[in-house]
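Sanity check. The docking grid for shikimate-3-phosphate depends on where the pocket ends up, so I'm generating a full predicted complex first rather than guessing from homology. Inputs follow.
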Amino acid sequence: MDTLAAPPGGSPAASVTIQPATRLRGELSLPGDKSISHRALMLALLAEGESQIEGAGDGADVRSTAAIAAALGASVDRVAGGNGNADYRVLSPGDGALRAPASTLDCGNSGTSLRLFAGILAGLPMTAVLDGDASLRGRPVARIIEPLRAMGATLDTRDHDSLPPLTVTGRRPLRPIDWTTPVPSAQVKSAILLAGLRAGGTTRVHERVGTRDHSERMLRARGVTVRSLPDGAGGAVIEIEGGTAVQAMKERVPGDPSAAAFWLVAAAAHPDADLVLRDVGVNSTRRAVIDLLRRMGADITEDAVGASPADDAGEPLADLVVRSSELEGIDIGPAEVAAAIDEIPILCLAATQARGRTTIRGAGELRHKESDRLAGIVAGLTALGAHVDVQGDDLTIDGPVRLIGAPTDSLDDHRLAMTFAIAGLIAAGRTTVGRPASASISYPGFFTDLERIRA
Ligand code: S3P
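Predicted complex below; grid placement will be based on this.
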């Protein structure tokens, strides 16, 4: 790499250049899981007393959530721990005594902050405005406005109920609802469950396709009654009993499997690689990327790490070892896309190195992430020489292709920045990644780790 993503205190570099790696070796600890870190801070805000969060992800998104928790009345102490993690101590008066924020709540680039705080604010007797950067202002919010309005909250946006900023006026108690999520989305489910905490009765969310279940596990660990019942058709109904206080607790955050995914693909696709990834979260609703890569032939071994149930809110951990592999193309269907929604970009890179065709069906939701990821993947991987085609919501990738270094653009999207940087490790020649600083949205130490494992 010739240049660093962001010199301390300086403006972010416009691009980085990645040279191919001759070998990949080493051991990495990942940043704390982003989804769990957001929820731990939000639930600490709602719980009266002191909560402790160890090893939270220290990316910009989680910091946005921490700043919003402080703006709503919690005292939030953050101690950066190095390698992309931070420990937090949150002292909150509890959700009955939070204060209306003095100004707009800035979610930055974080869709999770926007959607989940909308659910929380729906049950608080105040008016608050949630806003963010240019990317966030382009992301759909109708999916949370409809259920939260049905529960009795008042929500307004700048543009026909579709785009942030989002003004929320809460109401107490809210009405419990029975809601079927049309698009598989853990953010929508979680927004409804967080509002359901303050509803008078049982709120139900029907998920036809399952999504990450951290909110359910973490609410249960904090004393709230949450049930997940199979619906008999492959989906589930999640029920929450309103009116219970969220209890403060201490939680250790597992390493982020979505961050681990970059190294799993780097090593599996590289001809001379052997990497160890420590303490990765392997929750059944987040581990799809591991199982899909194994189905492609990736040599990944997994050793369960004993965790203290009192500290981990029921999130299983494992050490992963990944080595150079012969990959084969596979078919990935819509339910698997939902289960690996954040890992599709890096899985596409794996597919370029796999023998035969990989199809990824029903990936339209990727158009509504931090960027239009379908367009970004096609542009970046095609520039590197890959054979990628999009028809409607389906992607087809034919491999294996010897990638040749070329300019790529992250579109200011962290997962695209990291995908193209990993491509640079396995491509011939120099790959440049435009707007690489976006990696620090979820993985501030990414480029440092990349240099370490090629050493
Ligand atoms: C998240 C859910 C996913 C994911 C996002 C984090 C969460 O979004 O893409 O990065 O923490 O709940 P959707 O569930 O809306 O697809």
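Relevant for the grid: The longest helix spans residues 34-46.
Also worth noting: The radius of gyration is 21 Å.
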